[in-house]
Write the structure tokens for this entry.
Amino acid sequence: MIDEQGYPRLIDFGTAKILEGRTYTIVGTPHYMAPEIITGKGYDYNADYWSLGVVLFEFMCGGVPFGEEEEDPYNIYEAVLSAPLRYPNYVA
């Protein structure tokens, strides 16, 4: 969002929480969820770095790194947990 002065603002922190150690909340968009979230073993702020990496991959390669063609969340989770990371041929 852009405010009245033209500055960008981050919004939609409805699922944000202050972490003290690990959390076990499973929430998010499947393509962007870190493996530790999917497995339910608990995670910390490092899961945000995973999501940032997915976004950067998407910006550079034109699609998410795992489960791009999938719509079923369980198939996406499986791809995140086991599929190898592959870059398009034009990214070298």
In short: The helical segments are 35-39, 46-61, 73-82. The CA atoms of residues 67 and 78 lie 8 Å apart. Residues 30-82 form one domain.
